[in-house]
Design brief:
By secondary structure, this protein is mostly helical. It is built from 21 helices and no strands.
């Protein structure tokens, strides 16, 4: 376990940066008022949404939301410590104020996030479980992956190891998928893990720390060539803050990393909360009730276009008895046949016909909402076999009809209410202000053999800020922990400072073990929760 009192970097305790106290005593009370206002808003908005629900299982909903927000709270004090380590150890900001500052910008990052990462993470889940999210299997899925992620995050935090919450969540999802496949009845096929999607996410998580290491090292080299100010590459002297321009750069990069972390990592909790809401109160959240009033008409138009396009590739004489079952089988096995083309065309026609009498989602009877969402979602997954997997070759014009349908589906099913963003932002922001010291000490003192310099801190933070920000725009989940920790290691190597290999070994071990351990935890918990629900 990391010793938060002593330091291998040799920093005398009286001058230790963690002992600096901030002077802005107003910050914490102000944030407290913000939290109170946020809680009142979340409660009011949730009650308004649930007004359309027939019945609400309050206890189940409350427990599920508490666990989901608990994951984001743990994520806050586990991951966000990486963002503040450099400004604390370069004396750019007092420790307590830096943590509060980071928490505030994590809050803003969550509020302004796009939601792309949230649904990118959910795409890893078995389609079967997403369609059955309101069943016992669905509840077992959500609780298993959340509890597994929280347990691993707490364990690595206790040991002071900057492990990745993104890796943990991906591992938990894979564990749930494998357990679902394992528990399938003998002789029946069921959807497990989408390994192609998991591979894409895995490559992103693997490549990002490598980018962090080499990009930070190269940037530090470039800074030494272009900015020949010796003060930039020297360790802080006592409690004296750095020159104003260096301090401004470090605070800017800390702010950027905090904002990017909130925007990227906060979305993981949002996606899971939406799964919970869809499963527990589908009549209120299965379909988007607050979009452009014309979006349902746009969906109908897109459906007709896809139905027409599929008709060009349907072979005469092919018949299908159960269109929905045939489409489900194609999605589950990720295969295509002549029957699939006809089945999907028929399924789209029937789904659109069921929604035809209604001009907007507000007028769709609550009894039809959940089934309509599942139909729309399943059709979207089937069409991915065409435009993503290329299992049915199409002409460009027909393929455009498919991509237009995906946009219409996203408007209908991929949405995040503002109150969900506020709730996640509060949890992540509050988590940032709790338990941060263990990870801060590891990043600030335990990676390199010498004290972190201003230039090293700026290079590592700048690379992390840009990398995470770009990943957020592309809808890719990356690890703030991995990118920043590897960036600090890269600057130490480039500076010739040397690395503390015991710490590096422990970090690598934690990174390597995160996936198998979270997979195992989620696998076991899913089997246990299936017996509970």
């Amino acid at each position: 376990m990391v010793d938060i009192v002593s330091s291998e970097a040799g920093i005398p305790r009286p001058d230790h940066p963690l002992d600096q106290s901030g002077s802005a005593k107003w910050f914490l009370p102000a944030f407290g008022v913000l939290v109170l206002v946020g809680i009142v808003y979340v409660g009011y908005a949730l009650s308004q949404d649930l007004a359309v629900a027939k019945t609400v299982p309050w206890i189940l909903l409350g427990i599920a939301l508490l666990i989901a927000l608990g994951f984001e709270f743990v994520n806050g004090f586990h991951d966000t410590a990486n963002a503040v380590a450099t400004v604390i150890y370069t004396r750019s900001m007092p420790a307590e104020f830096a943590v509060m500052w980071s928490g505030a910008f994590n809050f803003l990052g969550v509020l302004t996030s796009s939601g792309a990462v949230a649904f990118g993470i959910l795409s890893l889940l078995p389609v079967e479980l997403i369609l059955q999210v309101g069943s016992s299997s669905g509840f077992a899925m959500v609780f298993a992956l959340l509890v597994a992620a929280i347990l691993w995050n707490l364990g690595t935090w206790f040991l002071g190891l900057p492990a990745s919450s993104s890796h943990t969540m991906v591992g938990s999802i894979i564990g749930v998928g494998l357990a679902n496949q394992f528990m399938a009845p003998a002789g029946s096929a069921t959807s497990g893990v989408d390994w192609s999607q998991a591979t894409n996410v895995g490559v992103t998580l693997l490549v990002s720390p490598i980018i962090g290491f080499f990009a930070a090292a190269i940037l530090l080299y470039a800074m030494k060539l272009l900015v020949r100010n010796p003060a930039l590459y020297e360790a802080p002297k006592g409690n004296t803050p750095p020159p104003w321009w260096i301090r401004g750069l470090l605070i800017f990069t800390c702010t950027g990393v905090s904002f990017a972390h909130g925007s990227n990592d906060g979305q993981k909790g949002m996606g899971l909360i939406m799964l919970i809401l869809i499963g527990v109160v589908p009549t209120a959240y299965a379909l988007n009730r607050t979009p452009d009033i014309n979006y349902l008409e746009a969906y109908k138009s897109a459906s007709v276009s896809v139905e027409t396009a599929l008709g060009k590739y349907a072979k005469p004489g092919v018949t299908v008895t159960d269109a929905k079952a045939a489409v489900q089988d194609a999605v589950r096995t990720r295969t295509w046949s002549d029957q699939t083309t006809v089945a999907l065309q028929t399924y789209i026609h029937n789904t659109t016909a069921g929604l035809q009498p209604y001009a907007s989602v507000e007028t769709v009877p609550t009894d039809l909402v959940s089934n309509a969402r599942n139909d729309i979602y399943l059709i979207g997954e089937a069409l991915k076999l065409i435009d993503k997997k290329k299992l049915l070759p199409m002409e460009a014009a027909d393929l455009k009809a498919v991509t237009d349908y995906h946009k219409a589906v996203d408007n209908a099913t991929k949405f995040i209410p503002t109150w969900v963003k506020v709730a996640v932002a509060l949890a992540l922001g509050l988590g940032t202000m709790v338990g941060w010291k263990r990870i801060v000490v590891t990043v600030g003192e335990k990676i390199g053999k010498s004290h972190l310099t201003y230039g090293q801190g700026a290079a590592a933070e700048l690379v992390a800020m840009v990398t995470i920000g770009m990943a957020d725009r592309l809808g890719l989940p990356v690890s703030t922990t991995h990118v920043l920790s590897s960036g600090v290691a890269g600057t130490m190597a480039a500076n010739g400072s040397g690395l503390q290999w015991s710490t590096v070994r422990n970090l690598l071990l934690a990174w390597v073990l995160t996936l198998p351990c979270s997979i195992t935890l989620a696998f076991v918990l899913f089997i246990v929760f299936r017996q509970v629900f």
